[in-house]
UniProtKB/TrEMBL annotation:
Coiled-coil parts of chain: none
Top-level taxonomic group: Bacteria
UniProt keyword annotation of Hydrolase present: yes
Membership in a protein family: Belongs to the AB hydrolase superfamily. AB hydrolase 2 family.
Residue ranges of every copy of the Phospholipase/carboxylesterase/thioesterase domain listed in the record: 24-200
Keywords: Hydrolase
Protein name stated in the entry: Esterase
UniProt GO molecular function: hydrolase activity
InterPro entries: AB_hydrolase_fold, LYPA1-2/EST-like, PLipase/COase/thioEstase
Gene3D superfamilies on file: alpha/beta hydrolase
Classification lineage: Bacteria, Bacillati, Bacillota, Bacilli, Bacillales
Amino acid sequence: MNPIYEYDIHMPGDVEPGRSYPVIFTLHGKGSNEGNMFGLVSSMANDFIIIGIRGNLPLGAGYQYYDLKSLGNPIREMFDEAVQNLEAFIRYATAKYPIDPGKRYLLGFSQGAILTMTLALVMGEQLKGIVALNGYIPDFVKTEYPIRSIKDVSVFVSHGEFDSVFPVRIGHETAAYLRERTDRLTFKLYSADHGVTVENQRDFANWLVQDAGLTTIEE
């Protein structure tokens, strides 16, 4: 299989033959790229395989995974295709690299967070956990997608209190929806606009390494 997406992969420093590793797949925001996401997870590069997936649609100097009719209103056909292609890519990478299929994590920002949460609902317990930063779940995903159980999926959701793209109300609504489906939800607000603070980054990094059974990152 030739994957539809370009991607960067960072392997742990000392890869042991025959050993499998936890993985973090990163999904960037609209108009960004996989390189911008690596800075958010670089502190975990010794313990995780990190795969940054680049959107396949050019947008300005960056990329996107799907286009919009308007803000918060994805073009449905493009969105559906992106979800299917990303799920296929996760399977492709799991077969190609020494990934522990029981410790697959997704981490996304904005458009990437929207896809991250959608993939969790579609893939269910095929994922160990997700980190969704400043995103939402489209209504058509909630009502029309074949949603699987996420009862045992670990979920970290965060939102900026002053988010000017997706107002903080959306963060609360997203958390309420997910809280009905898993007891393993961590929801945090940060004093920020549509971005990721240093505190936010430290919190989800520590959450990830703890959930994967690794050592907590020092502050």
